Amino acid sequence: MGKLTVRALRAVLVVVLAGSVFVQALMVWVLVSGNDPEDGSLPLTPLRVITILGIGTAQVTLVCVWRLVTMVRRGTVFSHAAFRYVDVIIGAIVAAALVWFAVTALNAPGQRDDPGVTLIMGGIGVAVLGVALLVLVLRTLLAQAVARDFEAARMRAELDEVI
To answer: Based on the number of CB atoms within 10 Å of its own CB, is 93 exposed (0-12), middle (13-18) or buried (19 or more)?
Structure first.
């Protein structure tokens, strides 16, 4: 990965992380200060708490991606240390899907006249779980690459002994 690509990705990660922290802080402030303008149409306080948690899952993913990009830049991504970050990303995506299903459940009673909205929201949650499965497949590919890298290193060492 080139230096320009790494810098561009890191710039995007910093902007998204800073923006998410700002939005999260504003939502926490609204909850703590008691200025929650709830009009009764939707339970805004639970939705805000769920949204804060959902933003947290995205932030965890951003930090793990940052660490993986650092490992790629150093050439150490094909190691067992990378699995920790990939596993955390998978967990964060599953948590985000669960958070989304909670939002869907809170929104469902208001959608009695149009249940299609609830079905679409449920479909989005299933799609998010699909992303977690995709990352799990990529983790398997990483495991195969790490195993082949270690096997190649072992064979090089054996060849060096023979020579």
So the answer is: buried
CB 57 within 8 A of CB 93: yes
Residue owning tokens 């497949």: 137
Please report which helix (H) or strand (E) contains residue 73, including its range: helix 44-74
Give the tokens for residue 7.
């810098």
Residue type at 93 in one-letter notation = I
Query: How does pLDDT run across 113-132, given as a tens digit for each residue?
Result: 888 888 999 999 999 999 99
Entry pTM? 0.83
Give the distance between the most distant pair of CA atoms in the chain. 80
The two tokens of residue 43 are: 């339970």
Measuring CA to CA, which residue among 96, 105, 94 is closest to residue 55?
96
Asked whether 97 and 58 are in contact (CB, 8 A), the reply is no
